[in-house]
TrEMBL record:
Organism of this sequence: Jezberella montanilacus
Protein name per UniProt: Trigger factor
HAMAP family linked: Trigger_factor_Tig
GO molecular function terms attached to this record: peptidyl-prolyl cis-trans isomerase activity; protein folding chaperone; ribosome binding
PPIase FKBP-type domain: residues covered: 163-248
Primary gene name: tig
Record key words, sorted: Cell cycle, Cell division, Chaperone, Cytoplasm, Isomerase, Rotamase
Length: 436
């Protein structure tokens, strides 16, 4: 008799599974006989060990495996017959008060994938992000490159301003007592880059070599140093040197520092313009994709399996731990990370993943080989030997799969942009590039 699938709530289902004891024992005896052919027991030749002896030594383990296998087979038959898509791993447990000499009964509880309905794409409102790239943006990029390679020249009597490099000694105290990490000699930083706390930077502005200043600093509640987080300290700083940035000229020598061995500034300029175009295109496309995906996620109204959300949460926590390790945090593997911080984003990612998969299947938006190759070639264009990069990606299955995933998302974005209500949004180049 076919097992009946019971709906508990939402996507949760339960099914009762019964297996005959006679069938279990038949399978156990068959397995014992198979094992007896090769079992090695002291005092017996191979193949001559009595089955009754193996029953005592191997029987419990074999019986456990047989029961698991038969219950699993029964569950798979039920799932196939009901045409269900299981999300996560079913929970199996013996049914209470079901003891019988003839059968063993279990309850399997699991979630199923939802029926995903693609929303009306024409009703979605999305933004297509654009930015202007011209001579002004080129010059700003060149200026940034020059600032990154600035030479700092000490100036006597110079009052420190933003972009100057300040070298100083400092001592911090909390309640009159020095604290760990609150003291340094000949410490240098570029003023205005945000490396130091705002009160520390503000105190350094206007100071000259030889100046001494005492000032308060309030550590934020979320400061990385837990011993001082949320506390008020008093710092004494003594400026040793104020150095003015001297930017290199945009000339042959500058070109050589950027990888042009012949110092060809025309070629350097062309490379910079090409990089700006590629980067701005990639970043505007990323923001447009975010707008499209947000619109899709908001329009999706189906329930998502908790098992998939839980799995996504664990992936996010694992990624957070890896990030902490890379940043040098001690005991990152054991540091408590609250799961609830990731639940909302995990639900969004799962819902969006299911919806995008359904949209790809429904509208036949699968990645085509020529699209994958074109995307790889576009990516490889920023390397010195593009052909080698293209070959590497095309011959490496995992790398190629990554690009296929990107192309799939691109196809979804372009499909939505072609049908939704699209508003063009101009974003300043500096915002796109993160320069302010």
């Amino acid at each position: 008799m076919q097992s009946v699938v019971e709906t508990l709530s939402g996507l949760e289902r339960r099914v009762e599974l019964s297996v005959a004891m006679a069938q279990i024992e038949q399978a156990v005896q068959a397995e014992l006989k198979r094992v007896s052919r090769t079992a090695k027991v002291a005092g017996f030749r191979p193949g001559k060990v009595p089955v009754s002896m193996l029953e005592r030594t191997h029987g419990p383990g074999i019986r456990y495996d047989v029961i698991n296998q038969q219950v699993s087979d029964k569950l798979q038959e039920t799932i196939a017959a009901a045409q269900l898509r299981i999300a996560g791993t079913p929970k199996l447990e013996p049914k209470a008060d079901s003891a019988s000499d003839e059968t063993m009964t279990f309850l399997a509880t699991f979630e199923v994938y939802p029926v995903v309905e693609v929303p009306d794409i024409s009703a979605l409102e999305v933004s297509r992000i654009v930015t202007s790239v011209g001579d002004t943006e080129f010059q700003r990029t060149v200026d940034i490159l020059r600032k990154q390679r600035a030479n700092y020249v000490a100036r006597d009597g110079r009052a420190a301003v933003d972009q100057d490099k300040v070298t100083l000694d400092f001592l911090g105290k909390i309640d009159g007592v020095p604290f760990e990490g609150g003291q340094a000699d000949d410490f240098s930083f570029v003023l205005g880059e945000g490396r130091m706390l705002p009160e520390f930077e503000e105190a350094a502005r206007g100071m000259k070599a030889g100046d001494v200043k005492v000032f308060p600093v309030h550590f934020p509640e979320d400061y990385a140093g837990k011993d001082v987080a949320g506390k008020k300290a008093e710092f004494t700083s003594t400026v040793k040197e104020v150095a003015e940035p001297v930017l290199p000229e945009f000339d042959a020598e500058f070109a050589k520092t950027l990888g042009e061995p012949d110092g060809n500034i025309d070629k350097l300029a062309a490379d910079i313009r090409g990089n700006i175009d590629r980067e701005s295109k990639a970043r505007t496309a990323a923001r447009t994709k975010t707008s499209v995906m947000d619109a899709l996620a908001q329009a999706a109204s189906f329930e998502v399996p908790k098992a998939l959300v839980d799995s996504e949460v664990q992936d996010r926590i694992a990624a957070a731990r890896e990030s902490l390790k890379e940043r040098g945090f001690p005991n990152a593997d054991k540091m408590p990370i609250p799961e609830e911080e990731f639940v909302a984003e995990a639900e969004r990612r799962v819902k969006l993943g299911l919806l995008v998969s359904e949209l790809i299947a429904k509208e036949q938006l699968q990645a085509k080989p020529e699209q994958v190759r074109a995307r790889i070639e576009e990516f490889a264009a920023s390397y010195e030997q593009p052909a080698q990069v293209v070959s590497y990606y095309l011959t490496d299955r995992a790398r190629r799969a990554e690009v296929e995933g990107i192309v799939l998302e691109d196809n979804v974005v372009q499909f939505v942009l072609g049908k939704a209500k699209v508003t063009e949004q101009e974003v300043p180049f500096e915002d796109i590039m993160g320069n302010r």
